[in-house]
Amino acid sequence: MGCRRPPKATPFSGYCFVANQDGRSVAVVDLTNFHRWPPIPLDAAPSLVLAHPSRPRAYVLLPDAGSVCELDAASLSVSRRVSAGSQLASMRLAGESLWILARNPAALVQISLDSFQPRHRVHLSAIPEDFDLSQDGRAAIVCPRDRTVIMASLDRAAVERTIRIPAEPTSVCFQLDGKQILVGSRPDRSITIFDVPTGRTIVRLPLPLEPRRFCFNSDGGQLFLTGNGMDAVAVVYPYQTEVAETILAGHAPDGMATTGPEAGSYLLVTNPSSNSVTVLNIDDRRLVSVVGVGAEPREILITPDNQYALVLNQKSGDLAVIRLYSLDNPARAHRYKSAALFTLVPVGARPVSAAVVKL
Length: 359
Description:
Strand content: over 45%
Largest sheet: 5 strands, mixed
Number of strands: 33
Radius of gyration: 20 Å
Strand order of the largest sheet: 24-25-26-27-31
Number of helices: 0
Oligomer: single chain
């Protein structure tokens, strides 16, 4: 029986916008042919870029400048800019609003995407570090110095409650249904699950590593964590409130991304110190492939059509493109588990974040 040939790749109509921190610019890669367009210059270092879910727009966080820029995918330029405070920590999209987390003064700031002006400001009682938004209109904000988690209502732009916890919180995410929040503590090597309506602690789960990165599978039933302390991924079942297992995932695993069942249900994990990406099968925990990429891969994202994984290599300043079909091709059965890159695109100095914008 002959080997099955992989289906031909189809073009994706869109751009990948890449925030280059040291280059103070946003690189533009055309995903129909992986052509690189001239970069969009900025006047400050970017840290994060997000794509609008339905419009050809992207939003870039400039933490030190205290502002956010809107990028127009038609003109490949900065279309609007807004100030949101100073020492900005992060941002999230919710409906037709951007929510910006500012450290000074400590606040959660709403930016209307229509006017691109501040609309509401939720004042915080402590300096924040990280936050997440739920689909039903809540925010969870961690404040490590005060050892608190602040719950806020986005609709009312008001704090609902402050939860004090014994372990210093360093990261947070909502369970997919919004009923629980999961708070990671790197110093304590633990994750604590809280009930959202009451703020009650449900369980504290010790971990074999310092939880630094969070990544859910497609249905939200599994949460994967990486961090210092172990060359593995810890798997948490949030609905069962238990740590299920740890899976070896190459040396010093860092950034992660998952694919849906239609693309093979993969967990892709970057290994910065070995310049590779480890690919695991989520369903049976099998090592699928190890892919050599550029120097110091950190971030990874999946294109909306589930054809490609895009890997940001911070040291070599390029975008590694992995074709997902090539990872588990039956033609390679019983061979050494390695897969070749589809292509490599130079993008600039120290790429730290990327987003895919549909055209």
